[in-house]
Amino acid sequence: MSRTTKLKIGYVVALAIVGLTVGTAIWAFRGSAVAVVVIVLLLLLPGRLQGLFFRDLFRGRRLLAMGKPEQSKIYSVQFLEQIRKRPWQKRLLWLNWGIYTTDVEVMALNNTAAAHLECGRLDRAESLFFDAIELDPKCPLPYFNLAIIAEIRGDREKAEAYVKEASVRGYTMSVTDKMVAMAGELLARYEGRGIQLRP
Fold it and tell me: Which of 64, 90, 115, 199 would be 73's cystine partner, CB 3.0–4.6 Å?
């Protein structure tokens, strides 16, 4: 079983535990308005902290989804610089479950590489995808993106090999993967607001 599959299962279990805990707490306090407010604040606080420290990551992802790869790259690179200066911020990833990687720097590298890929800079994108793999060889997304580059270059054999590597690591383009992508885009849309578009 791949790490990605384990993380997906862990995510569902964590949601179930949070749901049961919240339900039990509300029931135990008999639906007290104060208890409900405290529970809601405790559930929102981790996301707010992550939104604050990972804002540029979310903005880059949002812009990528909007089809603005050049602007996306700017925010993703800013985030990479920030996380490399303050590596302790990587630990904040626990505030929001990572499905494909447990390293937020890998997420940022993948997003930056994807922006280069969208702009047609295949060599630069490929290099950044390999940087992401070096940091986290178990992350399936860079492999899948390398398959796209190989396909663009007309190397079907290499593309198929990279798709297989992504699949072995848990990215199978299943319904779950599509839901994870949609959830990530929704989170980026919300947390990435306040974008300053640059000419």
Answer: 115
